[in-house]
Design goal:
The chain is α/β, with parallel strands linked by helices. Strands 3, 4, 5, 6, 7, 14 and 15 form a seven-stranded mixed beta sheet that branches. The chain is globular.
Length: 340
Amino acid sequence: MSTYRVAQVAAADGRFEIVERQESAPGPGHVRMAVDACGICHSDAVFVGANVPGVSFPLVPGHEIAGRIDAVGEGVDSGWRVGDRVAVGWFGGSCHHCKPCRQGDFVVCENLKVPGWAYDGGFAESVVVPADALARIPDALAAAEAAPLGCAGVTTYNGLRRSAARPGDLVAVLGIGGLGHLGVQYAAAMGFETVAIARGGAKADFAKQLGAHHYVDSTADTSVADALRALGGARVVLATAANSAAITATVEGMVPRGELVVIGADPEPLGISPNQLLMSGRVLRGHPSGTAQDVQDTMEFSLLHGIRPMTEVVPLDQADEAYQKMMSGAARFRMVLANG
């Protein structure tokens, strides 16, 4: 039996170490992937830190996986074959029997299988995944480009396309980091009048390069809400920054019946009063990532519009250094582990 390498942590908040494991055949309904690339997402820290129930150690994180099928288990649809280039994101499979699944809303499955939580993730040379998690990678998209689209990409893309915004509407993207730098590109490509919001004036030129029509410095004397109102008010704010105070500061900058779509995770509560929502009919909602088909849609849209994540690609051997760089906030903007 062949062996493969993984980057694992032995205990909560431990450092990554490279170990060898025995390769296993995929079970019914599963495929085995040779991993070409895997993005490092800030959500990986939730599992590395054992901040959710059901985490077991040693842990192999990674839910932004791109690679090739190298073995197919029993009962897998004949459309998937050895050699197919595929991606797996935060949506790593669903149970098919809970109420949301029976209603076709698989991404909010009550037993959602997130790679690196429900099973070993993509910080590895090989991974076994449920076939319903597979998204087909377009030929022209490199693995290191496709991998981050399985979480950062689909979350921002889906958050915008399922929002209330229509072409020509003013849409603000809060934060231009790992999620936001993609959100700005998607918003502009969808035909929205795009506002990028970030800290400091130095990011204005970069925001314009991403496609933003306007830039708002959240540290300026003019409040974010006032700056948005001066532009006519936002129909939608896509909140990618994991900062509840910054998210809260955008609410009064929305038009009546405006929508605040929250995708940046922060344990601190939002400081929004019911009156801010009631009197203007505003909507506040959280948005999860997307199904395998949504990931595939994201990749195809990205290819069509020339949208790519900005990545720093390093070998699997450097998983610990790459993870620490992501945690420090120094990554620009997605660390990606690559094999081969």
